[in-house]
Amino acid sequence: MKHLISPSLLSADFGNLQRDIEMINNSEADWFHLDIMDGIFVPNISFGFPIIKHIKKHAKKTLDVHLMIIDPDRYIEQFQKAGADILTVHYETCNHLHRTVQNIKSLGMKAGVSLNPHTPVHLLEDIITDLDLVLIMSVNPGFGGQKFIPNALDKIKKLKKLIIETKSNALIEVDGGVDNTNAKLLIDAGCDVLVAGNYIFGSSDQIKTISELKLL
Ligand code: DX5
Ligand code: ZN
């Protein structure tokens, strides 16, 4: 499968959000990556339902929603109503991950689980066949523009092995510090979806930057 690109709107210009959404619509990007932060699980607060609904109205591609919130079960239905197509929760925030994943899928969304840099891949052994996506964090979640943690590459290789062994259909997504110095290595390691925020929105020609990531 050709890898996918999911630009992170966290680095978009929120004063010109519709313009940045149209840029992604008109680019070779595949998904929109939306980062939802609660100020408790991560030391930052981003945006909530009104903004997601606004994005949904204009976006012509899959909404890939990354929840960095504690006890996400409280809000699963609201995220579905706001327009999420893929809903990813953090392993570290769920006491009953299996139930959370089933809840997400029962509402018609794809279910993802994200691992912080310190959380090992083997903890997913008994749930990997239920997942549509695993999101490997290559920075500590909370902020855009951070430096890539190279250990993510080894985690992706381990995860790829686990997915093949278990015949899981889960896609591997990587998030944090992705740029032209590591993107090819990530794809070669088995990554299916590249999230990029600062690298895309900080570039002078965003459409071209997305095309270059897609071409790798
Ligand atoms: C970090 C977020 C990321 C972030 C990526 O907590 O999950 O999606 O926006 O931004 P960059 O690509 O700038 O590291
Ligand atoms: Zn993210």
Could you write a compact summary of the structure shown?
The chain is an alpha/beta fold and 216 residues long.
Description of the molecule:
- With 216 residues, this protein is of the alpha/beta class.
- The protein has a single domain (4-215), classed as TIM Barrel, CATH 3.20.20.70.
- The chain is built from eight helices and eight strands; from the N terminus they run βαβαβαβαββαβαβαα.
- The radius of gyration is 16 Å and the shape is globular.
- The two termini are 13 Å apart.
Q: Any descriptors?
A:
binds D-xylitol-5-phosphate, alpha/beta, binds zinc ion, TIM Barrel, eight-stranded parallel β-sheet
Helix content: 25-40%
The total strand number stands at: 8
* Subunit arrangement of the protein: single chain
* Shape call: globular
Our estimate of the beta-strand percent is: 15-25%
Question: How are the elements arranged and paired?
Answer:
Layout: E1 4-7, H1 17-25, E2 31-37, H2 49-58, E3 62-68, H3 76-82, E4 86-90, H4 97-106, E5 110-115, E6 133-137, H5 151-166, E7 171-175, H6 183-189, E8 193-196, H7 198-201, H8 206-215
Parallel strand pairs: 1-8, 2-3, 3-4, 4-5, 5-6, 6-7, 7-8
The protein binds D-xylitol-5-phosphate and zinc ion.
